[in-house]
Amino acid sequence: MNLARSLRASLPGVSTREWDQSDHDGLWLGGTPEVLISPVSAQEASQILTWAGQEGLGVLPLGSGRHLGPVGRGRFVALETSLLSGVDEYEPADLTITSGAGTSFSTVDSTLRDNGQWAPFDSPGVTERSIGGFVSEASHSPLWAGYGSLRNHVLGATLVAGDGRVLRLGGKVVKNVAGYDLLRPVVGGQGRLGILTSVCLRAFPLPAHERVLVLKRARVMDLIEPALLAGTAPVLPVSIVLVGQLAALSGSSALVLRLHGAESTVDADQSALEKHLGMSLDPLAANEVDSCLVEVRDRGGLEPRCVEVSVLPSCLSKVVAAAEEVGAAKAVIDSYAGRLRMGSTDMSVDAVADLRGAAENLGGALRVVRWDSASRPQDTLCRNAEVQLAQRLESIFDPGGVLWPARQ
Amino acid sequence: MTQTLASSVADRLRAIVGHDQVITHPDRLVAYESDGLTAYRVVPRAVVLPETTEQVSQVLRIMHDEGIAVVPRGAGTGLSGGALPTPDGVIVGTARMSRILSIDEQNRLARVQPGVVNARLTEATAPYGLYYAPDPASQSTCTLGGNVAENSGGPHCLKYGVTSRYVTGLTVVMADGEVVRLGGAGLEAAHGLDLVGLFVGSEGCFGIATEIEVRLLPKVESIRTLLGIFHTMEAAGHAVTDIIGSGLMPAAVEIVDNATIVAVEASVFSAGYPIDAGAALVVEFDGTEAGLDDDADRAEQCCLSAGATKVIRATSDEERIALWKGRKKAFGAMGRIAPDLLVQDATVPRTRLPEVLARITEIGHEYDLKIANVFHAGDGNLHPNILFDRQNKEELERVEKASREIMTLCVSVGGTITGEHGVGVDKRAYMPLVYNDVEMEMLRSVRRVFDPDGRLNPGKVVQ
User: How many CB pairs under 8 A join A and B?
Assistant: First the structure.
């Protein structure tokens, strides 16, 4: 009996399809799932994971399928969340929104915007991502400076653990310390602890006014000092990023600062920043803002090969110098967070290994976000004790190792 | 019945931390019999006060080898019995671990020992134009180690978030004495799970944090504080909904009810709130001076539209302190009304506040108990305070029944049993209101990942 037939015999009514690589252009798995399964509920996802465990199969969770690296060996099926979509609950006055994991971020965000609210996250390609994948990946978002990270704003979730247990984690209130915070390792856990089937996010009021200020220079390196200085200003922009050769700015490298608030507040914040930096900043015209911000947001993050580096902000210039050795790549730097993302079509494993070495020597770390080849550079691993704790945690959530493909 | 600690074990502990830092005399142990939740009292076998990570490690290794339970304790200001001793356990207190190890102005980070008092960190970082954002009501006495254990909040976490948002790295001593470093600023890109986030709020059940790395924020330029007086709690609740719904982002939104106002005004903490008011609403904005008056004007208009009889705006620091006084001194003032106070803690969706508050009042009447409400209205975090006399056993029973009804009510509207005080022993019985059997077992399993033998803070959170 082939796998799809076995699945249909065990779980009649479950939606399955043959895997078709052409539906997943750009997703490089390093293997082929035997079948693509689309559960319609957490309970069905639970049954599928239980069945997979009994069959000795791995399960690869797929959101929008944009950020998975290669998976390991053996037989596996793919579980996509596209049928777990839609906004389940939204109460604007509570500033919370609950949606199925397969709902696109843009659906959630546009629902919020219709009510004068938004979800302040600007990681690469965010609008096209599923909420479940977005939360599982927890990619860095420069708006972190002004709004905090995604980890602080995922209020609740339903997770189907590797052995099929359905767990409601957190809730839908902004303050909740009832029991250990099992949500925290799930956010950014890359599907290693389970498959998200719904997520409750905190929403924010849309800022009354946004101003994007730029400082142009020929080279990114020339902008690091003012960027770090901006991070020590009495006024904190909601994001501080550096980018090289922005098409939206006629090829200039730029420091891009975003200010949010009432117009009078933004005026005052701009003055305070300029005084602190000892130089004037150019506001972008309204018709330039969207294209510039989208280019900055996606910079390097959608390339076939993409890595992220973190260091203390005070070490940025050294790590940027090391990154320049990697070769031509599109990079964006969040100077307030000490994060650098770079992507290209042809970064080499050796060059990335050198960059990782440089970051680690500075007390930092490197993570491979995307890589389109089997010979993939290594991530910076956590310390041994942390790895052991994480492995023990994984074995609690997924005792049979069903979610193995995501662990590679 | 509290067990005596074998003198041989006490001597080994004294050899590590010093003779005076191991307390075994019954008279002195009484000071550690409870934390801020005084309804529960258990005298510990001993109290050990180490000064360094290495000492904590050695102490925990002995406890592990001897099979003795350990109850970690910060300043003992917790309100859920999280630091309640066990009769067979030893308290490991962090009072002597009170050094600020470093302040990194450029990267806006501080590294501290767990016994550093919350407010002291903000004082120490002020010369650099920085501060530490989480501000629990007990910030002048509570410690950062306790804040990490409880994932503490405070009035200003509406805008700035709770402790977990600010902790970037930890050095932790595990139950068997192993020293483990979790996370750290600069290491965010490392491949792994967010164990720092998991550890924060684990109520001393996963390990003892002996070094804490926290993120600091730039000091705000200016503040505007308003006090709105309302005839009814419902009207104050509507004002809160309007303020948040209008897109404003206050730093704090706090409400006190009539029972609290009456208690405060009759006490030495009198703040000048009208005693016939149904509720008083404190709203605070902070940020760049230029935009604050606009924000305050809009909030004032929301209050007036919702039916405020009066809105007062502070024009100086002294006036600001005076406006806050009725809120900040509420707990102290209640000591005048009854000998004991159960400070409850639950969170509900903000829009459900009016109905929940009305029902809490009914519950008070049904159980013939006085309940005064003080709460973080902006994030729906309620603190119904039940006044009672613990010598009156019959009244204590009614307190427990009323508490359970309040918790059940909060969960039934989509809320939870604790927003910032933690589960400790006080809320343990309510955990099944929130979690089913499978989820409870998962919590126990995760605890065993860190402490397989269950010797760290046994009996807290889950059993």
Answer: 268
